[in-house]
Write a structure and sequence with these properties.
By secondary structure, this protein is an alpha+beta fold. The protein contains 13 helices and 21 strands.
């Protein structure tokens, strides 16, 4: 019981830390001519105003600014934001807000996205603080919430089990509860049951989807906190248990190991959107940059004890082997299963998705090594890819389909069967640290981890602000990477980067080119013999560990 109380106190302290930090930033930030702080995304005004208002009305806080003035500023921004809603019944996107606000916020057209999460959060904030609103803000909030309810944006069936539908489901429950709409509540509970049953049976189609996983968490936590029916609240708790267990499996001190179906620039190449993790786990320092605040400082649901304990205790290395299925809207046929792998130690993680998937905006991050957040300066990942649709130099996302992979514990092999007519260069991301360059290899030390990077071709190394970029032309070809923590290296009698580089240089992989593209490597740690090969027509891929084909029999939902 004492430990539980201590945990609850720690959660509250971390949430308060976020509230204070964002409130200070909001109070310092000058307003634009529009009376808002942001024109890039209307929701950011709502979030910052929420934090500033909360801090200003908290009598227990001592803050370096005038609280009454801060409250007025927060209310002014909140009111201006709320009044940007389309309040004309019968018009397109009635009840919605604009997303981008340039050049004139009051002339910006409504957009379908902001209300999905902001509408529900407005109900939560109104429930918590409306007694401290000015009369004008209170009226504006209740009026806006009424417009959202009557817009019925959430009255949609569950078909793809993605983050949009998760927010619709939560909104059905929240607005059904708020307006005592039993029919809407029943629809919300039915959608919740369908969604939970699907992801339990087949996994989340949006595997490692960032930042959208956090919209699942916030939407259902918001509904859980507002729900008064014990039965519905219990089912919402089951959903949140599932989500936090899912997060815990891939967790390493703020990092999200393995593959991602989506990744925005604040999630790839670095794990930058970490506030929800910070509150829940608290085993890394709160970063100065908070690129996506949302309601991380307000909403909270405690993760299941076993999952949280496993996530926080990585002394023993673990392998995570998960299976999931994509869902294609309008296609009733069952999609082939996908297989996701991660090897997680206390100092690093490695892994990814075995299969290439064409995700929305082509944002799949196929594989990566991850360091704990804050372990290295800047980016905490290492990975390679062949650029595809949507790629721009300096933004290491958007991969092409031309990659085959083999994962085994601390080692990743990638082959790039790039066809004629395509750009031949691959791109690599390295964390900043100490690196020894050789003609076709890089041996490095970053964040208490040694990395051996072997390339089939030469390369160029560029220094970006937060990471090192490797460009290797001449594909088809391949890359082999092996990672060792300092403690793993010590067990092999290796001390220091020079000794590691000398040992790694003697174990360079064998790359094969021609009609069959191949890579063969023996792991420094596991001693496993790894072989990956593909014909350049991409019709046959062979992945073998100790001469045995890779099997997915041990992968499960």
């Amino acid at each position: 019981m004492a430990d539980r109380l201590q945990d609850q106190t720690s959660y509250k302290i971390r949430r308060q830390e976020i509230i204070n930090s964002i409130a200070l930033e909001a109070e310092r930030r000058p307003l634009l001519a529009s009376g808002l702080w942001f024109h890039d995304d209307v929701r950011n005004n709502f979030y910052y105003a929420s934090y500033l208002f909360t801090a200003a009305v908290d009598d227990t806080l001592e803050l370096p600014f005038d609280k009454e003035e801060a409250k007025r500023k927060a209310e002014a921004v909140m009111l201006e934001t709320v009044l940007l809603q389309n309040r004309q019944p019968g018009t397109e996107l009635y009840g919605h807000w604009p997303l981008g606000l340039n050049p004139q916020p009051r002339e910006a057209p409504p957009h379908e996205l902001p209300v999905e999460i902001m509408g529900s959060l407005m109900v939560w904030f109104c429930k918590q603080y409306s007694t401290q609103f000015s009369a004008g803000l209170r009226i504006a909030f209740h009026t806006a919430i009424g417009h959202v309810y009557r817009s019925g944006f959430f009255r949609k069936p569950v078909t793809t089990f993605g983050h949009h539908e998760a927010k619709y489901t939560a909104a059905k429950l929240i607005f059904g509860n708020f307006f005592e709409d039993d029919e809407l509540l029943e629809d919300g509970l039915r959608s919740l049951d369908i969604t939970l049953a699907h992801i339990r049976e087949k996994g989340m189609p949006e595997y490692g989807s960032l930042p959208w996983f956090w919209h699942w968490v916030q939407a259902f936590t918001c509904a859980w906190e507002l729900e008064t029916d014990s039965g519905i609240k219990h089912t919402l708790g089951e959903m949140l248990d599932y989500l936090w267990n899912e997060r815990s499996q891939w967790y390493l001190q703020g990092a999200w190991a393995g593959a991602h179906s989506r990744g925005w620039p604040h999630d790839v190449p670095a794990d930058g959107n970490v506030l929800q993790d910070y509150v829940q786990f608290g085993d890394f320092k709160l970063p100065a940059e908070m690129p996506r605040t949302e309601y991380a400082g307000f909403l909270f649901y405690e993760a299941p004890e076993q999952g949280r304990s496993n996530a926080l205790n990585r002394e023993a290395a673990v392998e995570v082997k998960k299976q999931t299925e994509k869902v294609v809207a309008g296609d009733p046929d069952r999609q082939p299963p996908l297989h996701s792998y991660a090897y997680i130690t206390e100092d690093y993680a490695a892994g990814g998705m075995w299969e290439r998937v064409e995700e929305f905006d082509n944002e799949q991050l196929r594989w990566a090594y991850s360091l704990p957040v804050g372990a290295a300066e800047g980016v905490n990942r290492l990975y390679f890819f062949h650029p595809g649709q949507g790629y721009n130099a300096g933004d290491p996302r958007h991969q092409s389909p031309y990659m085959e992979v083999l994962y085994h514990k601390n080692t990743v092999i990638s082959l790039f069967p790039v066809p004629e007519g395509e750009a031949t260069a691959i791109v690599g991301v390295l964390p900043k640290g100490e690196w020894i360059k050789q003609p076709s290899a890089l041996f490095g030390y970053a964040g208490n981890v040694y990395f051996a990077v072997y390339l089939s071709h030469g390369y160029e190394l560029l220094e970006r602000p937060d990471y090192l970029e490797v460009i290797s032309a001449g594909m088809p070809g391949g890359v082999v990477v092996e990672a060792l923590s300092v403690s793993q290296a010590a067990e092999l009698g290796i001390s220091g980067l020079d000794e590691f580089a000398a040992a790694a240089a003697q174990r360079a992989p064998k790359f094969g080119a021609g009609e069959i593209l191949s890579a063969e490597y023996s792991s420094l740690i596991s001693k496993a013999h790894l072989q990956l090969s593909t014909d350049n027509g991409l019709t046959e891929v062979k992945a073998e560990i100790n001469s045995k084909p890779v099997s997915f029999d041990s992968y499960s939902v």
